[in-house]
Specification:
The complex is a heterodimer.
Chain A lengths: L3 E3 L3 E4 L5 E3 L1 E3 L5 E8 L3 E8 L6 E2 L7 E6 L2 E6 L8 E8 L6 E3 L3 E5 L1
Parallel strand pairs in A: 2-12
Antiparallel strand pairs in A: 1-4, 3-9, 5-6, 5-10, 6-7, 8-9, 10-11, 10-12
Chain B lengths: L3 E4 L2 E5 L4 E7 L4 E9 L6 E7 L4 E4 L2 E6 L4 E6 L8 E9 L6 E2 L3 E6 L1
Parallel strand pairs in B: 2-11
Antiparallel strand pairs in B: 1-3, 3-8, 4-5, 4-9, 6-7, 7-8, 9-10, 9-11
Classes of the chains: A mainly beta, B mainly beta.
Chain lengths: ~110, ~110
């Protein structure tokens, strides 16, 4: 089975802190994604990556950056967390031949 | 870019009834339409998808229909069971990029 693991299920941070959300997949997929999930707003794409060291902005990249130093690992970085970044963050990898996304269980971030 | 509208936002049915969730999309170049189910505390999981060269696809109690002319696609669940209770997301993607745009989600509640 494909496994996408997000390192932290729950995080509480203070405004202005730097936050790292880590994601690892075990299926050698090229494509990886970070989404933000908020009630009533669905899944909104923050960033995605086609390959190591490659990144593309999604629909809501402001306030976020990403890092992909190794194929299996895709990190989301909040340089200076703000309260409006309190949300559920979902990482996914993609089977390129079919388009299917495999999601992690999510990281719920609270910024105080 | 692509815009996906999903209705209803909440759907409550009795066990055994059918449930229908409808989505519209804006980009006529979209040709891949997946549906994801998100159970409480988990990441979304693909349950069925359809491509633009097909009008309907079935998998046991779930089916998806696609009307490319009207830019509509729908998820049909027959003989609903309590374990069908979840949030369902439709999505649309185009070309070879497979970068999906998601609808806002439908919370399906199946009452025993």
């Amino acid at each position: 089975d494909v496994k996408v693991t997000q390192s932290s299920r729950y995080l509480v941070k203070r405004t202005g802190e730097k936050v790292f959300l880590e994601c690892v997949q075990d299926m050698d997929h090229e494509n990886m994604f970070w989404y933000r999930q908020d009630p009533g707003l669905g899944l909104r794409l923050i960033y995605f990556s086609y390959d190591v060291k490659m990144k593309e902005k999604g629909d809501i990249p402001e306030g976020y950056s990403v890092s992909r130093e190794k194929k299996e690992r895709f990190s989301l970085i909040l340089e200076s967390a703000s309260t409006n970044q309190t949300s559920m963050y979902l990482c996914a990898s993609q089977r390129e031949t079919t388009g299917e996304l495999f999601f992690g269980e999510g990281s719920r971030l609270t910024v105080l | 870019g692509e815009n996906v509208e999903q209705h209803p936002s909440t759907l409550s049915v009795q066990e055994g009834d059918s449930a229908v969730i409808k989505c519209t999309y804006s980009d006529s170049a979209s040709n891949y339409f997946p549906w994801y189910k998100q159970e409480l505390g988990k990441g979304p999981q693909l349950i069925i998808d359809i491509r633009s060269n097909v009008g309907e696809k079935k998998d046991q109690r779930i089916a998806v229909t696609l009307n490319k002319t009207a830019k509509h696609f729908s998820l049909h669940i027959t003989e609903t069971q309590p374990e069908d209770s979840a949030v369902y997301f439709c999505a649309a993607a185009s070309g070879g990029s497979y970068i999906p745009t998601f609808g806002r989600g439908t919370s399906l509640i199946v009452h025993p």
